[in-house]
């Protein structure tokens, strides 16, 4: 199983401790983390996705080659560009690539370094 979510050694993107996907349902996230999977669960957390930025020029290049796809990507990432401009220099570092990083792990796992950790969610009232 593969999960895009969590923040292990970096601050969350919703609260200082919570990443958006995990914050949305911490109880379900804890169940997923605690389950006995037939193969190791791989989590692609903010620790990874914040290191891989995509610059707007990439969307421009895609739009030149495939206008429909490139413009769609630019439009759906506008939210992330605005949101992350308060946290990172999106002009210099690009927009963090959360879901694309998880997909890249599925396609090219050799590009990633993994480590074995036992993780559980802290679930409490008020998140």
How would you summarize the topology of this molecule?
Elements: E1 2-4, H1 20-24, H2 26-34, E2 42-44, H3 46-49, E3 53-54, H4 56-65, H5 67-84, H6 90-93, E4 95-96, H7 98-107
Parallel strand pairs: 1-2
Antiparallel strand pairs: 3-4
Structure explained in plain terms:
The protein has 127 residues and is mainly alpha-helical. The chain has 7 helices and 4 strands; from the N terminus they run βααβαβαααβα. Strands 1-2 form a two-stranded parallel ribbon. Strands 3-4 form a two-stranded antiparallel sheet. Helix 4 runs antiparallel to helix 5. The mean pLDDT is 88.
- Please provide the ordered H/E string of secondary-structure elements: EHHEHEHHHEH
Q: What percentage of the residues does DSSP assign to strands (E)? A: 5-15%
Question: Considering DSSP H and I runs of 4 or more, what fraction of the residues is helical?
Answer: 40-55%
Shape: globular
Physical arrangement of strands within the biggest beta sheet: 1-2
Largest sheet report: 2 strands, parallel
- How many strands? 4
Please state the average pLDDT score.
88
Measured distance between first and last alpha carbons: 25 Å
Rg from Cα:
16 Å
* Contiguous runs where pLDDT drops below 50 for at least 5 residues: none
Structural class: mainly alpha
Number of helices: 7
């Amino acid at each position: 199983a593969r999960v895009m979510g969590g923040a292990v050694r970096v601050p969350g993107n919703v609260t200082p401790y919570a990443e958006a996907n995990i914050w949305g349902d911490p109880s379900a996230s804890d169940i997923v983390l605690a389950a006995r999977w037939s193969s190791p669960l791989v989590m692609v957390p903010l620790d990874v996705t914040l290191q891989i930025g995509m610059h707007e020029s990439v969307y421009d290049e895609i739009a030149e080659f495939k206008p429909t796809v490139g413009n769609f990507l630019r439009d759906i990432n506008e939210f992330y560009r605005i949101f992350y401009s308060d946290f990172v220099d999106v002009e210099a570092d690009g927009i963090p690539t959360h879901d694309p990083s998880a997909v890249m792990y599925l396609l090219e796992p050799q590009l990633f370094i993994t480590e074995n950790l036992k993780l559980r969610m802290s679930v409490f009232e008020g998140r």
